[in-house]
């Protein structure tokens, strides 16, 4: 089946630094990938849609200058949290769909802790 | 305003019995619905989906029922097994599943007791 790999699984960083999270589709090409965020006991919230070769589409309320998304190839999207603050501590998950009807395959998620 | 609601934060079921997880939605434009299972510190795993042109979809022990007039769907797990213990998310899309704008509920934590 479709596999999406996300790295790193956990990261701790200092306030003010930047953190990059990678999302790779291992056995299929994904022109579109999606980035979600989940706070404790809350639902997954779509942050942005990552499009290969073009700019990402951000959901309302998501700062595009803070959450930089790059989709440089058909198998890789990256999310960079810039100038991280403790409030950015959360669980970030990416997803992609191989083909319609398959359902969306999610990465294993990244637990970001900003100290 | 939440467009996808899972009103039961938790559910406890005995092994071998049926688990019924419920989900309500408010947006009549939703036409594709999915259920995901999630363990702590992991990404969600796709379980089953249903298009709005159907009212039932079955896959092994998992069956999803859709009642469009009531804007309600449910996931039935029969028989329930301890390994089914996880958080289950209901999600909906208004684009026939072709785009990623999934709207998720808050999840229901299922505990299946041996």
Give the fraction of residues assigned to helices of chain A: under 10%
Cα radius of gyration of chain B in angstroms: 13 Å
Order of helices and strands of chain B: EEEEEEEEEEE
The largest β sheet of chain B comes out as:
6 strands, mixed
Low-pLDDT runs of chain B? none
Kindly name the structural category of chain A. Answer: mainly beta
Give the % helix of chain B: under 10%
User: What is the approximate shape of chain A?
Assistant: globular
What would you say this structure looks like, in words?
The complex is a heterodimer of chains A (115) and B (114). Chain A contains no helices and eleven strands. Chain A is 0% helix and 51% strand. In chain A, strands 2, 4, 5, 6, 9, 10 and 11 form a seven-stranded mixed β-sheet that branches. Chain A has a four-stranded antiparallel β-sheet with strand order 1-3-8-7, with no helix packed on it. Chain A starts with a strand and ends with a strand. Chain A is an all-beta fold and 115 residues long. Chain B has 114 residues and is mainly beta. Chain B contains no helices and eleven strands. Chain B is globular, with a radius of gyration of 13 Å. The model of chain B has no long low-confidence stretch (mean pLDDT 92). The chains are: A mainly beta (115), B mainly beta (114).
